Amino acid sequence: MDNAGPKKTCCESVREFFTSAKFLIYMGHAMSTWGDRMWNFAVAVFLVELYGNSLLLTAVYGLVVAGSVLVLGAIIGDWVDRNPRLKVARTSLVIQNSCVILCGLLLMAVFQFREQLVELYNGWILTTCYILVITIANIANLASTATSITIQRDWVVVVAGQDSSKLADMNATVRIIDQLTNILAPMLVGQIMAFGSHFIGCGFISGWNLCSMCLEYALLLKVYKSTPALAVKAGQKEQELKQLSPSKDVERDQSPEEFSQPLMNEASVVAKPDSPKQHGCCYQVTELLRTLRAGWVAYYNQNIFFAGMSLAFLYMTVLGFDCITTGYAYTQGLNGSVLSLLMGASAVSGICGTVAFTWIRKKCGLIRTGFIAGTAQLSCLTLCVASVFAPGSPFDLSVSPFQDLYEHLIGGKTLPEAEYSLTTVHTGGNATTAAPTEELPPLQSYMSVSLLFAGVIAARVGLWSFDLSVTQLIQENVIESERGVINGVQNSMNYLLDLLHFIMVILAPNPEAFGLLVIISVSFVAMGHVMYFCFAFKSLGSRLFLCCSPEQKVETVDSPSLPAIV
């Protein structure tokens, strides 16, 4: 009988964990992220395949997606703030998955009847299908942005309550899920398309999103019912008090925190739903513009403005495992097998960064963790700078950046040979294009490319720790009624810097200029961490350099000395 007690307690603890709101959020996020990663990987491959192995449609899709989030990020966040949490989660979830399903079905029809569509109306029907696919996929991405804001930036904070350690653990677990799905999901759908067909791949993704939508909503509904705090929003409570109490009483009882962040609250309270002006189209358009402006103004006036900007500056870089870096690696003699191993090492490094974040935060505090992570990332990136001047580097500024473009335009080619090979690699060998006739010459030394990827992989530890630090700073220091709009503007800033880095590559696309892009990227990362240092020093002063115990540290974020924008 004495041994029965501990066993029962252990079983109850396990059952309590698997039925807790925290675990249910993990499950829902894993399913959602898995579907997103499969779709994001597959849609780029589908667009390349549909347009004759050209990157034109993929580039247009990327530009539309980035531009949409850049322009509409604040409006999406404001919509998240103004509506009940369950309504926001349900609406964004249904729109996102329905758009992906519709896109999948449309792509299946295009793959099945492509030859017939080319002949109809001189190919205009097929062009219309391309436009519909890009438009619907963009709507799905906007809905995914709303889902990410409401779940990862709001629900997680409410479920964690006032426990900062629990919030840090939840953020780290969510990021580990992101890392794992980012590697495993594309591998799965890639194998399906390689051993099956693009038609089967579209059907699998559509079926996954149909099942996932129902299960995700069931999990979120259970989380919502088990966490009563999710049913009440600060903005809604303030609006009810504003209507029930005289204005003077509200002004007298207003807390300093509410008084210091009045922009979006006033916009949500002052607006009168019964006003006849709101029925006009012109008023609705100007209201959206006012919301957009108010969102950016509120973001600028936040006490964590410098921290958010520092995170955005990290997106202005070519030092990541995207198509640009992998394309450069191919020109340096690395094949698809080596690149896949490097991506796996990058994922492991990112997971180590999330684990390091939770440990360092407990020892040194949240703000110091960001400072330490930024220093570590910048130190590792010095290897990338060294790779520019190491043996085997093609760095040569005497070569015109537009030489390759000119040659391909004159020669009538639509893609460099390397892009053909990359298309074949990313589609699992299922591309219809023949292999390139010319092979790249072997390098004399792999020292440069080795230093480059050593720096990129090692820097992931600091990068993900820094990302988690800034994310939690935003979660803890932005008032509840503004979480949506502030995170929406943050997403817009991230996409803006990401767009700039693609423009930078367009201006210098040849491998000889990649070293210059590396130096510019490291410079932007350094500027971002300088901004974070200003934020951290303003918040902690000389205590920033004192590694104190958790019981001794008291971190308060002071508002930076910025002029208020009205």
Which descriptors would you attach to this protein?
566 residues; mainly alpha; Growth Hormone, Chain: A; 22 helices; 75% helix; disordered C terminus
Q: Can I get a quick summary?
A:
Helix content is 75%, strand content 0%. It is mainly α. It starts with a helix and ends in a 26-residue tail after the last helix.
Q: Could you characterize the architecture of this molecule?
A:
The chain is an all-alpha fold. It folds into two domains: 13-230, Growth Hormone, Chain: A; 303-398 and 445-547, Growth Hormone, Chain: A (Up-down Bundle). 75% of the residues lie in helices and 0% in strands. The chain has helices spanning 4-18, 21-50, 56-82, 85-112, 114-119, 124-160, 164-195, 198-226, 234-244, 247-253, 256-260, 263-270, 281-300, 305-313, 323-331, 336-364, 366-388, 403-411, 417-426, 447-477, 483-507, 514-540. The longest helix is centred in the first third of the chain and has 37 residues, at 124-160. The chain starts with a helix and ends in a 26-residue tail after the last helix.
